[in-house]
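Handoff note, outgoing to incoming analyst
You'll be picking up this chain. Sequence as last confirmed:
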Amino acid sequence: MGGALLSKSWRTFPEDYERSLYSVKTYKPRKKSVKHVRILLHGPVGAGKSTFINSVNSLFQRRITCGALSDGANWTSFTQKYTTYKIEKSMKESYNFIFNDTKGLEEPTNSGIDIEDIKCVLKGHVRDGYKFDSENQISEDDDLYNANPTLNDKVHVVVFVIPADKISLISGAMRTKMRNIRLAASEEGIPQLIVLTKVDEYCPKVKEDITHVYRSRTLKEQVDKASQLLGLPPNCIFPVQNYHTEMAPNENMNALILVALKQMIDLGEDYLNSQTDEPENE
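Most recent structure output, in case you need it:
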């Protein structure tokens, strides 16, 4: 792990922060039947899914928040239930995108979330609050099984959350699980991207100054490894630093989080607009 900085950035640091923030805040799906873009976060245990949700919420609330519970031990998945998180705009309103958190991928083949449960999640068959069980997949007899999902219930974009400092340690079994999830999403026509977390823990120069993120040689290498891992192009991979020790929001950290979030919403909107069976707003 090194801290060398390249003389030229391999990506432009996000600009027009206020314009992007306004675009996300005012976003509304064009489909009449859809209330929000549904973003499914998935990845290995300890990758930072829940912390990313908290970081997005911190950006919008302009203060550090911890609504999505996480566990620093990271031995097994802290998230056990299918959980929906909304970002509040006011006491009565939320923004028009939501996150769904799931049980993380665990190393043993027979533990963690099952691929069949993920397929049901993607298709909208799983209701909020369902507790995942690696030995028993959800069935049509379950009270939280949604037999007739609408487009609003389905997942509109899948986000793989992967820690930058653990890519080289991902086993063949874990790689297979992640690729199977990607295949299941692709079969449904659902777009995907990667959020690369813990960039500050991986690169000392980035820990010193987050604006160095796109000049870091080692992070560029990790982006390329993540691309090879799941077969997604580098421009679908977004390095971020989640809030974990900070006591107040940081505009440069927010800029990286925001550019990832905006792409999630844009891809979700593209997917919704490809579903021609749904009427559009006039």
